[in-house]
Amino acid sequence: MSIKFRPLYDRVVIRRKPEERTTAAGIVIPDSATEKPMFGEVLAVGPGKVLDNGDVRPLTVKVGDTVLFGKYSGTEVKLHGEELVIMREDDLIGVVA
């Protein structure tokens, strides 16, 4: 899905992966006990981080990457009716291979 939003500088737009509703043993987890997932898909990336000397360093992540981030990282926004997270690339922990 393509979104009509272009983040600035070193920011990325992420769609969280769906929450797990069952455990490995098949037990259903109620809505009140689920936690927000810390994995997501990168939907858009900014042009890059502006360095002290004025150069722009392109971002390491790209659209389509699955990333891991902190539980409380980023800013949650609603764009085009969808809940998304916007954060700086520095807040990402890593890319899932």
Report on this structure:
With 97 residues, the chain is mainly β. The protein has strands spanning 11-16, 39-45, 49-50, 56-57, 66-69, 75-79, 82-88, 92-96. The protein is built from no helices and 8 strands. Strands 6-7-1-2-5-8 form a 6-stranded antiparallel beta sheet, with no helix packed on it. A two-stranded antiparallel ribbon has the order 3-4. β6 and β7 form a beta hairpin.
Main sheet characteristics: 6 strands, antiparallel
Binned, the helix content reads under 10%
Which structural class do you get from the secondary structure elements? mainly beta
* Oligomeric state: single chain
The succession of helices and strands, N to C, reads: EEEEEEEE
User: Mind telling me the C-alpha Rg?
Assistant: 15 Å
Write the layout of secondary structure elements.
Elements: E1 11-16, E2 39-45, E3 49-50, E4 56-57, E5 66-69, E6 75-79, E7 82-88, E8 92-96
Antiparallel strand pairs: 1-2, 1-7, 2-5, 3-4, 5-8, 6-7
Keywords:
six-stranded antiparallel sheet; about 100 residues; mainly beta; two-stranded antiparallel sheet
Entry summary:
This protein is mainly beta.
